Amino acid sequence: MNPRSIKLVVRHYRSTDIPIRARLLRDAAFEANLNGWGSRSSADAIRAREEHTITDGQWTKRVYTVTKGDGVVVGFCWITSLDVVAAHCELSFAILPEYRGAYGLLVHTAASWYVWNELGMAAVTHQVLGHNSMFVRRSQLNRYATLVSRNDDNTAGQDRDAFYWTEDRKQFLDAFECAEQRWSQLKDRLRTKVEVAS
C-alpha cells in the first residue's frame, strides 16, 4: 500500500473540533490511559483548556485532527516534547471509539508521515503505559522498549509502568515496508484461497 493512497487528512486542531475531542476525553477506554481529568471536568473547563491549547499552547503541545477524506473526524494526534533544533518530538494519538480497530494503524501511519515529511522530524519518541493494549500488545512493548520507567504514572490511584522507545525515519520506513510486505502476502493467500474455493 502506497502511503499516498491512505485517505486520511492530518490538519490543525480547530475550535469546532473541541466537542468531538471532549467526547473522546470522557471515553472510559481512553481515560484509562490518562489521569481521569476529562470525566472530572465540566464542559466549560474542557472547552477552556482546549481553547488555550489552540491559542497559546502550541509550543508545548501541538494537536492535530485526523479526518477521513470526506472531513469526518476519526481521531486526534498530538506532539509534545517538541525540540525544533534537534528535530525531535513525542507523538501520541487517539481514535474515536467508533473508529477503533479499523482506523488505528491508518491514523498512526498518517500521523507518522506527517511528522516525518511535513515537520521534518529526525526522531520520534513513543511512550505507552503498560496496561494500554489499545494499539500495542504487552509482548510488543517488551520488544520495542529501550527504557521501562517503573511506576511512571498514576492513573485512577494505580501506579503504571511506562515503556519508551525512539524511532528514526529509517526505522519507521523499514517497519512500514515490512508491514506492506506482510499485507501483500496476506492478500495473496486470501486470493489463492478464494480461487481454490471457487
Automatic annotation (TrEMBL):
InterPro entries: Acyl_CoA_acyltransferase, GNAT_dom. One of its GO terms (molecular function) is acyltransferase activity, transferring groups other than amino-acyl groups. It comes from the Bacteria. Residues 8-133 form the N-acetyltransferase domain. This is N-acetyltransferase domain-containing protein.
